[in-house]
Amino acid sequence: MGKTFTVDPISKRRLSNFGEEDKYYIKDNHEPIISKEDFEKAQEIRLRRAGNKKTVANVNGKRERYSKMYAFSSMLECGFCGSILSRRSWHCRSDYRKVVWHCVTSIKKGKKFCKHSKGLEELAIEGAFMEAYRKLYHSNENLMTDLLETIESELNDNSLNKELKRITNKLRTLLKKEENLVNLRLEGKISDTIYNEKYNEISSEKEFLAEEKVNIETTLKSEIDVKKRLTEFKHLLSSQKMLTEFDRAVFESIVEKIIVGGVNSDGEIDPAMLTIIFKTGETQNKDGKQFKSKRKNAKLETDKLCPQNSDGDKKLYSQGTDYTWACRAGRTYSWANSSFTSNTCDSIAPIDKALSCMKSRSLPSPTSIQTAMTS
Questions:
Q1: Cα angle: 271, vertex 63, 69; to 5 degrees
Q2: Is 115 helix (H, G, I), strand (E, B) or coil?
Q3: Helix (H, G, I), strand (E, B) or coil at 277
Q4: For a FRET experiment, which of 58, 138, 222, 342 has its CA 20 to 30 Å from that of 161?
């Protein structure tokens, strides 16, 4: 209550209340749309995403702000313009939904600003990482030792705990300053103007630090699960076993970044080329097209549908008029309930043989003979 106030009862002019009048907050007055537990969980997610946001300067001096909502957030870099890649969904309202990562410059400014970049499927990036990890795993024992040391440093990273302790101490100091300021005002040693100015400064700093504290505490809670998975991965490396599926914690612990797109070994521009840079300094190039998922409506190859000289009758034929039809070599030919089998591979010979067979058996002249497919 009290978001607005009336200036005077005659003009009935109302203004927004920015502190000129009292405000009143009534708790649990209305029936909530969502439960309190759901609201608190939503706030935790919001604060966690806000806490993971970082501000970095790229090669062009532009400062970009990003979050770690997904495993590849801020980890993918365009090989043509240097921008980060953004996650998008294609055909999201159909059975052909596909999650891809695309250059932000191309998305926001247009194709002409990054004409070579193309969207790359998320599953292809995951598959390329798994293949690079397998190659790295079997290539050099020293590299695996470096990976173990990297994971160990991730597990022993207490920078957030130190930052939380610093913020807590700073908040205590501000509370003492606030108490001293109130005492000085009560004793009449400072004026109202100075008191209000200093009090607002302390309140603003307290509010900022309190939000930072909540962000760090939320991040620390989520890191418990991450460190648990990293510990399992460390045991996995020590036992010399392979990963069977993509794991975000493992990816973030050993990969510095992935450059998407570039010039391949043949000197051609390849938007699907992936350059995986590990934290150990190792670099691997992968072809993202090799790891793309198969199209749902892709047709099978002809050779798989009708292999030559197969024993079974596939019955792949085109229907003609007057019960007339003809198949490829190795298939049965039929005319008016009479049949024979051809073993030749020539696409014309089966028709000639069918005609001669029909004449020798005094069968009616065919009106049409068709082949289902040519060799």
A1: 65
A2: coil
A3: strand
A4: 58
Q: What is the DSSP letter of 80?
A: T
Domain of residue 345, residue span: 302-360
Number of domains in the chain: 1
Contact status, residue 305 vs residue 137, Cβ threshold 8 Å = no
What's the pLDDT tens digit per position in 11-37?
888 888 877 788 887 877 888 898 888
Contact 88, 100 (CB under 8 A): yes
Do residues 141 and 240 lie in contact, with contact meaning Cβ atoms separated by under 8 Å?
A: no
Q: Is residue 22 part of a domain?
A: no
Q: Using CA atoms, how far apart are residues 56 and 61, in angstroms rounded to an integer? A: 9
Residue 221: inside a domain:
no
146, HSE (Cβ side, Cα atoms, 13 Å): 14
Amino acid letter for position 137: Y
Q: Look at residue 348 and tell me if it is in a domain.
A: yes
Distance (Å, whole) CA 269 – CA 116: 8
Residue 263 lies in a domain: no
Torsion angle in degrees (nearest 10) through CA of 201, 206, 209, 215: -130
pLDDT tens, position by position, 154-199: 666 677 788 888 898 999 999 898 888 888 888 888 888 888 888 8
Whether pTM exceeds 0.85? no
